[in-house]
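Can't paste images in this forum, so I'm doing it all in text. The chain is below; anyone willing to post the predicted structure tokens underneath?
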Amino acid sequence: MIRSNKLKSNRLKAETLAQGYERVGCDALNVGVHDLALGFTFMDSLAKKFSLPFISANIVDENNKPVFETYKIINRGGLNIGIIGLTDKIPAAAAGLKAKDYIKTGKQLISQLQPEVDVIVLLINGNRKDYDQWKKEFPEADYIFTSGYTGRTYPSSPQTEGGPYLYSVGVQGKWVAEVELTMVNMDSPVMDISQSKETLKTVEKRFESLQKRNPDMKLEDIYADNPNVLKIISKYHVQETKAKLVLDEAINTSEYKLTALDKKISDDDYLFELVADVLKETKKLDKSDVKRSVIRKASRK
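Text version of the structure:
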């Protein structure tokens, strides 16, 4: 819920986010519960002003008519990718709108799009308690990206063989997720190689650390008198062999990468200055609204 004494500052923040999305460039933006907190009319005005591609398959008006585009089809690298937006609920501020059953709606759209696309991506704004059921509910999807959950999926996280591959990138825009899909044979399955690559990186680092004791000897010879370390080395070799086997056998591959937007990532100068200016302005607006609120209360007394 948006507090009335922060309405102006929240509208300014929302408009700034919309301006940032326009500058970055987006193919599809799924509408979630917080997006409609300032009302549909305001959000619709932002979409038109900044040409933002909002989608939602299950947010409808009182006549059950979708108020956003239900999906997008984009082409990347010769692949047609269908993107479907879903949310489990909408806020009270979205007067006149309602959320249809997103599970049922998602399944219907997946069936509709399957003949038209090569890859199906679901964008789901939902509750953490439902997170584990989405792979079972949408087995025909290829990828599921979630919002509304603060946790993050790392490249080392295990994925269900054959998909759908499910990812959560956290909140506050602190991380950027990237999926690199390589198709060699359209008749072969897609194999997630993210975990195997991370395993090889980890094993390599641990072998390097153990090797420091004597760079010129085999690890088994260095630790011949330490059975516990030998067990660990043996375990690492097994992990290494399995990971290499996955990479060698993979024909079509999917690799998930997660990048932290820390100081190593340079800022867009325009957006940096814009955000800095807006934060200053929102503080002024909040102070001004608080003063007016106090004056109104005092006048009532």
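The two ends are 27 Å apart (CA to CA). The first helix runs from residue 7 to 24.
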